[in-house]
């Protein structure tokens, strides 16, 4: 059989041979992206593999976390509470460059930055996050997001701040509309935590208001627990509409503040939070690392790109199979990827990875629920598998002390994981 010679097949053939780079005094580990995956990779590499020369490329001077941003919408926290700098990583010996990654050359193992600098590497940890598929929803684009914010890429906090101000300005008795995308997307329970915490704010300040959640799915993560809590804490305030019941939004009109579903129903709302479908970030898609799914396929043992060996992809940009796209898993994946990269640089076999996930969701200031899972690499199938019996969710029922403790555990998790990421 003759294989057509394309850029991708040529790249795959060029990179098929194993790397001959072994660790010297300072093998070069380049980390792209300074969020839950990238910041963790940089700090973990410096702590566990001090012989690595670690450089982190992150465009932003500080990082606003998506986890806990919903608590800013509720008024429980302020934006500075979820904003983190990179001084701790610098103190650990990480070279931090605030610039935009614009062109990746996996053959030459070089990355060009927006400012003109070109960085060479022996191994890369790529954790660029997501891009929004604006074109997937008629009428929605970047300009429309200034009227109907997505607030799904925290960036500098502008979108979170905009949505918060819109909620504050909405009259009592107004309607907040949420557009929820199909799977897969960043943080599966995130929209439903957002519904809950917007309801928490409204119940205190605008109790006659309503929330209309239009969903492109028929089921969602921790559904029974969320719906139990909505009935107990915010009765009559939240209407969730599944895809089967005409919840799939196909068009928006930012000027008229209208959400249109696939069956032609028009919903006029006062505030609209539109979360569009997503793909891996541009550096991955434009570099042809992503496949037809829009996400980057990886080797589950090493988290190396299947298209460009030497680049380990972690966090929301990679295709994780059954694993959710969560901050906790990005942290776990980053440590596994760094360990694999370090072993390969020394010519050793990478260790067997284990991926741990715990996802907390606040429903009120003293009320949280959680789900936990453990996954391992299924090298035979080339994917990931959940360890049997390892998962679980919070119990259902009227358990106020359980919910209060889980809220405290969630706060402890956030403080711990951000220290782990940023070294301070």
From TrEMBL:
FAD/NAD(P)-binding domain ranges (all copies): 28-140
InterPro entries named among the record's database cross-references: FAD/NAD-bd_sf, FAD/NAD-binding_dom, FAD/NAD-linked_Rdtase_dimer_sf, FCSD_central, FlavoCytC_S_DH_flav-bd, FlavoCytC_S_DH_flav-bd_sf, SQRD
Sections of the chain in a coiled coil: none
GO function term, MF aspect, one: flavin adenine dinucleotide binding
Signal peptide: 1-23
Name listed for the protein in its UniProt record: Cytochrome C
Domain Flavocytochrome c sulphide dehydrogenase flavin-binding residues, every copy: 351-422
Keywords, in A-Z order: FAD, Flavoprotein, Signal
Domain Sulfide dehydrogenase [flavocytochrome c] flavoprotein chain central: 161-276
Highest taxon listed in the record's lineage: Bacteria
């Amino acid at each position: 059989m003759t294989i057509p010679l394309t850029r991708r097949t040529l790249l795959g053939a060029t990179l098929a041979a194993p790397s001959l780079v072994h660790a010297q005094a300072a093998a070069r580990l380049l980390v792209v992206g300074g969020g839950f995956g990238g910041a963790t990779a940089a700090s973990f590499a410096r702590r566990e593999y001090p012989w690595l020369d670690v450089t982190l490329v992150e465009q932003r001077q500080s990082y606003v976390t998506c986890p806990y941003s919903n608590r800013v919408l509720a008024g429980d926290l302020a934006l500075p509470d979820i904003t983190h700098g990179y001084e701790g990583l610098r103190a650990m010996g990480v070279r931090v460059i605030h610039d935009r990654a614009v062109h990746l050359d996996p053959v030459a193992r070089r990355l060009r930055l927006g400012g003109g600098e070109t960085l060479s590497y022996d191994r890369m940890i790529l954790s660029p996050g997501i891009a929004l598929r604006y074109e997937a929803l008629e009428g929605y684009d970047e300009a429309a997001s200034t009227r109907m914010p997505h607030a799904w890429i925290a960036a500098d906090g502008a979108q979170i701040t905009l949505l918060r101000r819109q909620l504050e300005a909405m009259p009592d008795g107004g309607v907040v509309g949420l557009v929820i995308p199909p799977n897969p997307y960043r943080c599966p329970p995130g929209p439903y935590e957002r519904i809950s915490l917007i309801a928490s704010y409204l119940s205190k300040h605008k109790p006659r208001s309503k929330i209309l959640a239009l969903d492109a799915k028929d089921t969602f993560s921790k559904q029974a627990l969320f719906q139990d809590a909505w009935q107990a804490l915010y009765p009559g305030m939240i209407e969730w509409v599944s895809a089967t019941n005409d919840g799939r939004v196909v068009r928006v009109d930012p000027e008229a503040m209208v959400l249109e579903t696939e069956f032609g129903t028009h919903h006029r709302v006062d505030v609209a939070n539109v979360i569009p479908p997503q793909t891996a970030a541009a550096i991955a898609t434009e570099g042809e690392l992503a496949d037809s799914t829009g996400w980057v396929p990886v080797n589950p043992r090493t988290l190396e790109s299947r298209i460009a060996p030497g680049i380990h992809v972690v966090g929301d940009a990679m295709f994780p199979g059954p694993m959710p796209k969560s901050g906790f898993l990005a942290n776990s994946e980053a440590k596994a990827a760094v360990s694999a990269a370090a072993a390969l640089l020394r010519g050793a076999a990478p260790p067997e990875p284990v991926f741990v996930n715990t996802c907390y969701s606040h429903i009120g200031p003293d009320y949280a629920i959680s789900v936990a899972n453990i996954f391992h690499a299924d090298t035979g199938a080339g994917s990931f598998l959940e360890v049997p019996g390892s998962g679980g969710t919070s119990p259902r029922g009227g358990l106020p002390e359980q919910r209060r403790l889980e809220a405290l555990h969630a706060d402890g998790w956030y403080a711990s994981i951000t220290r782990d990421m940023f070294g301070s």
